[in-house]
Request: fold
Amino acid sequence: MKRGMTPIVRATARFMTPFIMVLGFYVVLHGHLTPGGGFAGGVFIGGAYVLMVLAYGADGAKSVFYKQRASLFECSGIFLFWFLAVLGLLQKGVFFLNVLQKAAPGKPHTVFSAGIIPLCNLAIGIEVAAGLFSIFITLAVLSRKEKP
Reply:
């Protein structure tokens, strides 16, 4: 017996997931210019993965491979955020100094006009998306173990 939703829900999820992902990446990368940022975009991206798991079933999602990959992305996002914070400390002795603002100033109101802020948003987006997906996978596995 196949797990997951009906073929209509699967087709809709398969069609909508790329659009949700693009919207999530847009919100992450333009977070310093428009409302949103790393957290909101990460929720979109994580929600797209959750949508696919809900549409196709949790049997494949509970594998160790997905949990390890989500943990790797979550740790990578946290490390990138920490690295950007310490980079200013290493260069000028100020924690979270915007070191890229002075090095390559961009035109105002463009993606590259904020120095390390888009990179911080990217790190937060990666961490939030992987964290939400990890929480969902953990809950899916725990709910499967409780049922007889």
